Amino acid sequence: MSSMTTKESTPVRAGAAAVPYGHAIVSEKWRGSELVQQLQGKIKLVFEENLGLVDFHLPNRICVLYISETDLVSGNGFKRRLVRFRNASNLHGIVITEKTRLSEQYFPPIQKFIVLELGMTLLPVASQSEASQLIIQLVREQSKEHESNPFLRKRRSHLMETSVLQTVQQIPGVGKVKALQLLQQFPNIYQLSNASIQQLELVVGRVLAQQIYTFLTQAK
Amino acid sequence: SKICLKEKLPVCILVDSREISSGPEVISLLKTVHSVKVEVCSLGACDYIVSNRLAVERKSLLELANSTNRNKLIEQIQHLQSMFERICVVLEKDRVKAGDTSRIFHRTKYYDSMLSSMVSAGIRILFSSSQEDTAGLLKELALAEHRKNAGILVPTEVTGHKREVLRFYLSIPHVSYVTALNLCHHFDSVKQMANSSVSDISTRAQVSHKKAEEIYSYMHYVFESQILA
Prior knowledge:
The complex is a heterodimer of chains A (220) and B (229). Chain A is built from 10 helices and 6 strands, in the order βαβββααβαβαααααα. Chain A is an alpha/beta fold and 220 residues long. The longest helix of chain A is centred in the middle third of the chain and has 16 residues, at 128-143. Chain A is elongated and about 85 Å long. Chain B is an alpha/beta fold and 229 residues long. In chain B, strands 2-1-3-4-5-6 form a 6-stranded mixed beta sheet, with helices on both faces. In chain B, strand 5 (86-92), helix 6 (109-120) and strand 6 (124-128) form a beta-alpha-beta unit. In chain B, helix 3 (24-32) crosses helix 7 (131-147), helix 8 (161-170) crosses helix 9 and helix 11 (198-205) packs across helix 12 (209-220). At the A-B interface, helix 4, strand 6, helix 5, helix 6 and helix 7 of A face helix 5, helix 6, strand 6, helix 7 and helix 8 of B. Chain A: This is Fanconi anemia core complex-associated protein 24 isoform X1. Chain A: One of its GO terms (cellular component) is Fanconi anaemia nuclear complex. Chain A: One of its GO terms (biological process) is interstrand cross-link repair.
């Protein structure tokens, strides 16, 4: 499962951008592993040779690259694999890594490299068993309706009138009553900002008009 | 040349005042070990702002793993999404006292599904083992943003008339603290901002074209008092 076994000629399997929902394309080298045994029955698996640098292709252009405890401990060989993946494709690469008692000291620099330098996603697991649970959730997430991901849902918009009223009330000396009076005369902040002292005086009186005018026009 | 740039412009991070009690080590290490210019202010929505577009939320692993926090967390992140182009969540390992088994992190389906949702939405996730580790990550994030010309370059302290103007800009919906600071320093007056084009707002406030359009339409939004009645 190390980078040594991947074929140099095929960094990423062609056409893997369209994996059906609920499915995963699994590299043949994973057949029989604990990870794959726990995936079976939960998601549909298709085994293939020559996935190149990738271990699992998931729906929505997600590729999982697995870095085992052994990979982590035995040096920086896996870095080359990640860089090659990054250069060869614009698919979303998720690196799943075994962060164990033995490998945890290697985690911080690797996180810096993968997330901050390569801009990929890194998710640590303690074992192949945890990795299988995570992959199941990643696949299920992609099958869901867009709207059911709370972080992709559009927020409902609030009442603009309330906001505008509050913004005008940030002008020193202007409370709710004065803000409403001003907005009746100058119906947006743009017009209010361009009002002359004389125009303002007609609404709020001389002292406050001067104060508002200064606030809106005063340079640094 | 990078070293030169760093010397001239120290990396700056805005920190929410609540972090003084919840992450004191993070703040002091940022200042002492990482020589970051730290400005503590009332950010309200988020824990750290490390650039003109990136907000960082510091969360404990146990907090994320506990499904009773779900709604609060979602609301918080959605709020950040309305203000920032990029969001990063730093998941920090909890300090567990000897013998306290109730606070040991157990990986659950819920935890994995939350991670999956965040990853799908393009939210960056970093794992930290301690406050010390978190401080280092924040510095790295700020440095990376600096290199991409998104660093915070305006003065972060505001006084007098500027304070009032800052509060005015902060009341614009979905405008972050750092955007308000940029508006405050890069426009001579509110009037000048109100008379600016979308592209001018985008350049001076250091925001995306879409966000600049939002600000522009807000300045031109016609208020109808009957709606509030």
